[in-house]
Design brief:
Layout (H helix, E strand, L loop, with lengths): L5 E10 L2 E10 L4 E6 L8 E11 L2 E6 L1 E2 L2 E2 L4 H12 L3 E8 L4 H15 L5 E10 L18 H11 L3 E6 L6 H10 L3 E4 L6 H10 L3 E2 L15 H8 L4 E5 L7 H10 L4 E4 L11 E5 L2 E6 L2 E4 L12 H10 L4 H6 L3 H6 L18 E3 L15
Parallel strand pairs: 1-4, 5-8, 8-9, 9-10, 10-11, 11-12, 12-13, 13-14
Antiparallel strand pairs: 1-2, 2-3, 4-18, 6-7, 15-16, 16-17
Helix pairs in contact: 2-3, 5-6
């Protein structure tokens, strides 16, 4: 019988703590058991030769809608299939994001995700990107389904998720938004400001009320105007707020993206916001009720120039960060420890340390996820 333990050796560990060359890592099916350098110990374990490659924590995606031709609205099978695609690109855990829909539809989708989190540890829970968004900043959300976060609706969604709702995006200008932030936070849900025309002051008030995330910084919100700095600077100035960033070269100018790492060190989380076409061919897809056309890997609401998520995977986001000159440990932190911290899971995810998750990602010297990586092999 094959030992459930694995010994990775001849690797350079890279995580938020830095780089550790000539290292070894011992794991079982659940946890990292030991970490060291030099000659690995003589233990009963499957030995995996890193061949001088890199070993990182399993990547974590706070915000994605699908992949591999599958969308989260396709139900449990679609979410699993999308997780398979992203796992092949190094992502160990992800939050299943949902676009705006009628409340009863969202209840059904949240319940399906809740059931899946009990059987598939790759799925951390759900993210309601809608329906509490600004109509004028709806992006790829159907404006017909956008509503205010009334106490009744908030409670219905919390009940449907059965404790597995990880985050919710809302527009602080919506009536009842600040009260909703308090209710969600009391239920253990991270609240994100996004899809909004909020001013700096309005966004700052939301952060003071308990919001701790900014949904895809710069997108579907005002930019950094010299007399109206808007929600991005409000998030930068709030020291406990994590800023999501889609680093695909399309959503945010790379020079501005690079500056965000300087403005908010340790608080940038690289997300994919991937829709079904990630890892799949160009063509027509659905995102919620909307038709999306993908050409050259660029996803647009059909018949418009509105971006409809991305076709990004996190290995590419990491590569793009490196191309901007972001030091490797800082780039890795943005896809591991920072998203874990945003969800309150940084006591067990996001670092290569004893007691942390065994779902590490093994990369070859060229920066490609190895087929025998624990993440890719699940």
């Amino acid at each position: 019988m094959t030992s459930p333990r694995r010994l990775f050796h001849a690797v350079t560990i890279v995580d938020a703590d830095g780089e550790c060359p000539d290292a070894w890592v011992l794991t079982d099916d659940e946890l990292i058991l030991a970490v060291g350098t030099g000659e690995p110990p003589p233990v009963d374990a499957e030995r995996i030769d890193g061949a001088g490659g890199i070993l990182t924590p399993g990547l974590i995606d706070l915000h994605r809608h699908g992949g591999g031709g599958h969308r989260h609205e396709d139900g449990v099978d679609g979410i699993r299939a999308a997780a398979d695609l992203h796992a092949a690109h190094g992502t160990a855990r992800g939050v299943a994001s949902l676009v705006a829909a009628p409340v009863d539809v969202l209840e059904s989708q949240l319940a399906a995700i809740a059931s899946l989190t009990r059987t598939d540890r790759r799925v951390l829970g759900s993210h309601l990107e809608g329906p509490f968004l600004a109509v004028d900043r709806c992006g790829a959300h159907d404006p017909r389904h956008l509503i205010d976060p009334t106490p009744e609706v908030v409670q219905r969604l919390l009940d449907a998720a059965e404790g597995t709702l990880r985050q919710v995006t809302l527009d602080p200008q919506r009536p009842g938004a600040l009260d909703a932030i308090g209710t969600f936070r009391s239920a253990g849900v991270a609240v994100a400001v996004g899809h909004t025309d909020a001013t700096y002051a309005e966004a700052a008030a939301a952060f003071r009320a308990g919001a701790t995330l900014l949904t895809h910084a710069f997108n579907a919100m005002p930019g950094l105007h010299h007399r109206a700095p808007g929600p991005v600077l409000a998030a930068v100035d709030a020291e406990d707020v994590v800023l999501e960033l889609i680093l695909d070269g399309l959503h945010v100018d790379p020079r501005l993206a690079a500056s965000l790492f300087t403005l908010a060190p340790g608080r940038v989380a690289l997300i994919t916001d991937a829709m079904a076409a990630a890892g799949a061919d160009d063509g027509l897809y659905r995102l919620g009720d909307l038709s999306v056309r993908v050409e050259g890997g660029r996803a647009l609401v059909d018949g418009s120039d509105t971006l409809a998520g991305s076709t990004l995977t996190q290995d590419m986001a990491l590569e793009n960060a490196r191309a901007l000159g972001i030091p490797l440990p800082i780039a890795v932190e943005a896809v591991t420890l920072t998203p874990a911290r945003a969800l309150g899971l940084d006591d067990r995810l996001g670092l290569v340390r004893p007691g942390f998750s065994a779902d590490v990602t093994l990369w070859d010297a060229a920066g490609t996820v190895r087929a025998d990586s624990p993440v890719a092999g699940r």
